[in-house]
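User: What would this chain look like folded?
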Amino acid sequence: MSEFYQDLPLEAAQQIEQLSRLIFELRESRARLLRQYGVEDEAVTVYRCPGAWEMPAVARRILERGGFDAVIAVGAVIRGGTPHFDYVAGEAAKGVAQLGLTSKVPVVFGILTTDTVEQAIERSGAKAGNKGADAAMAALEMISLFRAIDGGA
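Assistant: Here's the prediction, encoded as structure tokens.
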């Protein structure tokens, strides 16, 4: 376990470690799929965002900067015992969707929204596919589609 978490209660530290591994696997599966389709690691810029709530703002800044073929938002929001989940998950989804509607490049929502850590782990490759790879595939398909709509440009 990371020294960063040494002052936390053991259960909280273990959950943070699980989430860190989960996000790592989402990112890694995204990178593996992109490499499989000829996108080299050097062609991908990764920005680590503090949370799902902040992702739309970060994605907007990336889009404003330009120079990218797509933006893929990857992360996880896991339901707790308060309505916080509903606000964070809903606003993250709404923000990413709004950017996708106004952007000239694809903006893909790859943020897991689950009831439990176990469900998130399953959706990050353990049992139910991997949403990081799914988001990367959606981005590749949307890039191709946008180019076809634009006349092959």
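The chain has a mean pLDDT of 86. If you want, I can go into more detail on any region.
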